[in-house]
TrEMBL record:
Residues 223-428, 521-713 form the ABC transmembrane type-1 domain. CDD domains: TM_PBP2 (cd06261). GO terms for cellular component: plasma membrane. Pfam families: BPD_transp_1. It is found in: Cell membrane. The chain crosses the membrane at residues 53-73, 85-110, 130-149, 158-177, 227-249, 261-283, 303-330, 351-373, 379-403, 410-431, 458-480, 501-521, 527-547, 559-579, 591-611, 647-670, 690-715. Belongs to the binding-protein-dependent transport system permease family. It comes from Ensifer canadensis. The keyword Disulfide bond does not apply. Its main location: membrane. This is ABC transporter permease subunit. Keywords: Cell membrane, Membrane, Transmembrane, Transmembrane helix, Transport.
Amino acid sequence: MEHRNRRLDLTLGLGLAAFLAVPWYRIEGGFFGLGWLSGFPSDAAVAPGLAQIFAHGRSWLVVALVLLGICAVARFVRDPARRGLVLAAAGALGLLFIAAQGLAIGFTGWTWTISETLFGPLADGQPSMGAGAVLASLAFILIFAFGLAERGVMKGDAFIVASIALLVCLVVVFVFYPVGSMFAASVQDFDGSFKPDGFLRNIQDGSIWSLGCVTGGERCGVAWRTLWLALMTASGSTLLGLAFALVATRTRFPFKKGMRMLTVLPIITPPFVIGLALTLLFGRAGVITEFLSDAFGIEPGRWLYGLTGIWIAQVLSFTPISFLVLIGVVEGVSPSMEEASQTLRADRWRTFWNVSLPLMKPGLANAFLIGFIESMADFGNPLVLGGSHGVLSTEIFFAVVGAQNDPSRAAVLAIILLCFTLSAFLAQRYWLAGKNYSTVTGKGDSGSHIALPRSLSIGVHAVVIPWMIFTVVVYGMILFGGFVKTWGLDNSLTFEHYIKAFSFSVTDGVIAWTGVAWNSFWTTMEIALISAPLTALVGLLTAYLIVRQRFAGRDIFEFALMLSFAIPGTVIGISYIIAFNLPPLEMTGTALILVACFVFRNMPVGVRGGIAAMSQLDKSLDEASLTLRATSFRTLRKVILPLLRPAIVAALVYSFVRAITSISAVVFLVSAEYNMATSYIVGLVENGEFGVAIAYSSALIVVMITVITCLQLLVGERKLRRENRVFGAAPVRAATKTLSQENPA
C-alpha cells in the first residue's frame, strides 16, 4: 500500500507541477532555451495553467484542474476497488478533455462550428500545447493506468498497465492522428468541406490496376508492379540474409568479421549513392558496360533503368536488415534439439530441414515481412533507377510535390500500399499461429551447433562470396567517386571535395567549422543519437508486451505499430506536416518532429526483431523470476533484456542508421535550423555537385561504422550458457560409479 501511495503521490505532484511550474502553451524559440523564464509566470505567452485560468481568460482549463483534484481526493479512499474506479475514470476524462479542448479551440477561437453553436463564441483562442499540457496529459495517463492496476487489471501490475497505456497513447498521437489527418484532407475541399470527387476518381484509375502483364513489365499497373517488386526483393533479401547468418554462425569461413562489415555497409549508405554507383558500373556509359562493349561487342543497353535495377539496389540495401534479424535467431536454435535428431540417426541435411529450419520460422517470417515493407516504402532507389517504371512510393511523391498537386491521388496510392503490407502481415501471422518456437529454456546442453550439410555449406558459400565481391566493387566505386574531379567524366584525383565539405580552421584556440557540410552533419548526429535509444527502448518494450502479455486490443495495437512502417516516408512526411503544423500540437520546423518521425517510423524493426528473439525465450524464465517476488520491471531488466542483446543491437544500429540515411520523410520535415545530411546531399545531387555529395556520403559511412562498433561494444554479446553446470559429465560419471558400487546387479 505504501508503495502504491508513493507512486500515486509522485504522479499527482507531476500533474500539479504541470499547472504551476511550467508554461502551459508552446514557447516560441523552444522550451529548453529557457528564454521564457524572464516573463514567467505573468506573461500570457509563458504563463502556467493556473495563471491561464484565472488571469488570462482560459477558463475551460479549470475542468482539467478539477479532475486532477478529484484524483488527489481519491488517493485517501481506503477501498482499492473504489479508489481504482475513481482514479481510472478521472484519469481517462482528464486525458480526453485535454485532447478535445486542444482540437476544438484554435488560435482565434472554436475550430468546429458545432462547438460554437453549443457553447457560444469565445473571446479568445489558444496557442498549441506546450510543456504544461503535455505533463498534465502524462499525469492523467499514469493515473488512469494506476487506477486500472488497483482494480486488478493485468494482475495488478502497474508497470505493465502503464506501459500499455503510454504506448497506446503515443501510437494514437504519432501514427493514427497524422495519417488520419492526411486521409481526411484527401476528401476535403480547400475550405474544409467534404468533397470525395478526387478520391473516387483516383481509386478507379486504370494506370493503377492495369493487368497488362504478370511479371512487372511496363504495361503493368503501378500497384501490381510494386507488389511484384516487393515480393522479389523480400525473397531475395531473406534468402541472402539467411545465407549470411548461416555462414557467420555455422561454418569456419575465415573472413567472418569482414563479411559482417560488408553486410552492414549497404544499410549505412546514404540514399541515392548505391543507385549512382550501380549507374557508374552498369549504366550505358558505365565501367562494366564499356568493358563488355569493347571486349565482346555487347551493345550498351538500358536494362538497369527499370525493375531489374531497382531490384538489385533493393536487395543490396535490405539484405543487411534480414541478416541483423536472422543472426540472433540462427544463434538461438538449441543444439540439444539437433543432437536429439542425430541421436535418432537423422543425417545433417534432414536435421537441418526438419529441426533447425522450422525453429527459424519466426526470424524468416519477420525478415521477409520487413524486406517486403521496406521495398514497398523505398523511395531513393526507384527515384534514381526507376526510369518510366514508377512504383507506389515515387507516384505518391510526384502526386504531392509534382505538377499534379493531387493529395487525393496520394491518399489512394497510400491506401493501396497499406492494404498490400497489411495483407503480408496477416499472412505472416497465419503462418506462425498456434506454434511454439521456444529454444532457450534455461536447461543445459552441449553449446555447439552441428555443422551444415556439405551441399548446403557449398551453396551458401557460393552465394555469399560472389555477393561480398560485388559489394566490395560497388563500395570501391563509391570511395573512388569522392576523390575524382567529375565522377564518370574527369577521373583525375583531387581532395577538393572533402576540403569543401569538411574544412575547418583554428583561431586563438577556437575551432571554426568552415566546411559547407558541418551544419547538417552536427544536426544529423544530434538527432540520430537522441532517436536511436528511444526507438530501441519503445520497440523492445512493445515486443515484450506483445509476446508476454495478453490484453484487449493487442492485435489492433500490433497492426498500428506496422502502420507507420508500411506507409512510404513521403506520406509520413506529408501527414506530419498536415497534423503538426497547427494546434493542438505544433512541431514543424523543430527537432522534436524529426525525432518523433524517426522513432515511430523505425520502431517496427525493433518490435519485429524483439518478437522474433523473444519467441525463443521460454516463459518459464519469466515465471521463475516472478516466483522469486521480482517485479515485472526487474524481470524485464535482469532476465529478458540480457538475452535480447542481438535484438537490442539490431534496434540501435538500424534506428541510428535510418535517422542518418532516411530521405523520403525528412525532405518534408527539415528546416533551415534543422537540416539533415540526406536532405543536404539531395540538394548537392540536384545541383550536380556529385563529388561533394559522394565525399559527404563516404564520411557519413565512416562515422556510422564507428558509432555502430561502439554500440556493439557498449551493449555486449548475449551469452547463452548451454552447459549443465549441476549435472555435467564428471558429476554424472561419479554418480553412475557410486550407484554401480551400491547395486552391482
